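hey
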């Protein structure tokens, strides 16, 4: 992850030469976990994970952009930079969308609608809308930043920071909603939540872990942009891999191992992967009627 000398008085796409081995490693890792998710979805029809899988493909393609940029060093161009920048910003929002839908399914599977601050049918729409809004603000800011001048960068930087702050606030609210539901369910469990074999707490713990990983990554990106184009974080490539790449890969692997098909099976029956992500079994439950939450 070698660096190159750049001036702090002008906007630079990179303050270093992107590492080809590092990018290639994460292309391979994201491709492997995403391929496994694709197989798991095909076997269990857990369609709520489609956004997560799409995010995995975004990550893989984004790192291809970093390799293309490395070949251009030190004369970087906008295309590969925007490819990696936009897709690695988009992917966590897609991961979050699947997490939002999983919580809605857990609430319904435990008959816990009355214990939730937000009705499950509205929960996904509300938080995904917040994600889209934050991402749109970031995209607009990134477009301004790449215009080339330092003034453009400072103007766009403020917009990107606002978009990142909106995402952090939205995700923080989601975690609060999940915690309130969890606490209420512990104090006054429903009959359905107490049934043997209904290990919904395992599913909820997976959501907590995934949410924490995405939240830490979002805070890192917020601080990174707040420091500016010549800030310490943006000048050191390893920080991107430690606080973004590794964390987002961990989210993908987490849901390979604790696969949310278990949530779907608790609600509607059918095939699901047990803890570990390799053994597939069939759950026989009385399927609920009516339209599913999306």
């Amino acid at each position: 992850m070698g660096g190159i000398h750049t001036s702090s008085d002008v906007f630079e796409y990179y303050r270093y030469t992107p590492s080809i081995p590092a990018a290639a490693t994460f292309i391979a890792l994201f491709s492997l976990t995403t391929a496994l998710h694709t197989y798991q979805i095909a076997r269990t029809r857990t369609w709520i994970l489609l956004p997560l899988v799409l995010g995995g493909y975004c990550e893989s393609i984004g790192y291809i952009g970093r390799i293309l940029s490395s070949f251009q060093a030190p004369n970087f161009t906008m295309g590969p930079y925007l490819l990696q920048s936009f897709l690695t910003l988009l992917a966590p929002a897609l991961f979050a969308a699947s997490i939002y839908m999983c919580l809605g399914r857990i609430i319904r599977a435990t008959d816990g609608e009355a214990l939730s601050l937000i009705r499950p049918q509205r929960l996904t729409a509300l938080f995904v809308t917040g994600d889209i809004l934050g991402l749109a603000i970031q995209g607009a800011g990134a477009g301004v930043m790449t215009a080339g001048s330092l003034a453009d960068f400072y103007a766009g930087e403020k917009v990107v920071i606002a978009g990142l702050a909106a995402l952090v606030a939205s995700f923080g609210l989601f975690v609060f909603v999940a915690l309130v539901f969890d606490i209420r369910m512990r104090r006054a469990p429903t009959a359905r939540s107490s049934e043997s074999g209904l290990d919904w707490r395992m599913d909820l713990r997976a959501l907590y872990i995934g949410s924490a990983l995405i939240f830490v990554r979002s805070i890192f990106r917020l601080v990174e942009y707040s420091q500016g184009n010549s800030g310490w974080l943006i000048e050191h490539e390893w920080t991107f891999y430690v606080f973004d790449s590794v964390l987002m890969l961990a989210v993908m692997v987490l849901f390979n191992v604790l696969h949310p098909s278990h949530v779907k099976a608790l609600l509607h029956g059918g095939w699901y992967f047990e803890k570990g992500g390799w053994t597939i079994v069939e759950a026989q439950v009385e399927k609920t009627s009516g339209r599913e939450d999306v």
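The longest strand covers residues 270-273. The chain has nine helices and two strands.
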